[in-house]
Amino acid sequence: MSIQFLNRLGEIKIRLSGLFGRQRGASGIEYGMLVGLIAVAVLAGVASSGTSISALFVAVCNKLNTVSGGGGTCAGSGTGGTGGSGPVAVNGACGADNGISVASTPSGVAACATGTLTGLSGSGPWSWTCAGSNGGSSSGACTASINTCAGLPAGSACTMTESGTAQPVIVVTTNLIYAWPSDQTASWNDGTSNWGQVLSDATTTTSTADGYMNGQSDTNTLVAATVPVSGGHYQAATMCRAHGPDWYLPAQGELVAMLGENGTGSLSFNSTGSDPAGYYWSASEYNNGHAWFGYYSGGWLSYPIGKVNSLSVRCVRR
User: Fold this and answer.
1) DSSP 138
2) Strand pairing partners for 300?
3) Using one digit for the tens of pLDDT, what is the confidence trace for 108-164?
4) pLDDT tens string 76-99
5) Which of 71, 101, 151, 288 could bridge to 160 as Cys pair (CB 3.0-4.6 Å)?
6) Which of 284, 280, 264, 281 is CA-nearest to residue 272?
7) Residue 188 phi/psi, 5° resolution?
8) Is 88 exposed, middle or buried (0-12, 13-18, 19+ CB in 10 A)?
């Protein structure tokens, strides 16, 4: 126990003694006990917030001095003391721009979720660290590549970074999405298990609450329900997600809108309307055995087909 602590305790004892001297009988004792308990409660409550012990005793001592009618102030009043919990250590951590493609120089919380942006270098790609404070550690290296797609017209070929890997994409103006540059082939379902309407927008009509425009959410549902047996239950969706966490199988509305931009710049789809190369899977279900696909027949249309069929897949990302 420190000398300063004992000095403060002694001052409070003197003030309490003075207070008791002005009281008579049981009421004086009760009053003194009440004040003492209040003092303890104040100490416990304020101490939990990290206030200096020295300052606490000074404050309580002054209050007792006022109650007892004494004059002056207790020693150390107003000086605060040097105790308390001190500043909290903050570790530096990379922000949301780390590991992705961005259109401009990383800054603010996008660069550093916590800590201070330090050592930023480059003009795309960029690298930096986030320094800790109050003894906290710094982040590892943070990096971001430049998004060469920003502001480009529909059909433009460009690159974006996914999980640290530069990937070629094609700009699709509808819904501000980017398409994988080539077709792939897969069934919607493996045809042996997990049959059923697993999506919240499964319906026998083309009108749904989300307008069949949320393929990202649908793909998340399908991937979560996939068991890695027989190549995976929901093959088209898992094929898209294999490109990276931002890639997904477009919903029916997204698919038809994207197909409508066929022939714009580098954006090219099979418009023969033939099965299977000219049929494109969407992430939207029709019923427990069928899902919607898109194809060309005097215009880009959509129709349900058995999930077990192997059709073209064009993955997208935002």
Assistant:
1) P
2) 296
3) 999 999 999 999 998 878 999 999 999 999 999 999 888 888 788 999 998 887 777
4) 544 444 445 678 999 999 999 998
5) 101
6) 280
7) -75, -40
8) exposed
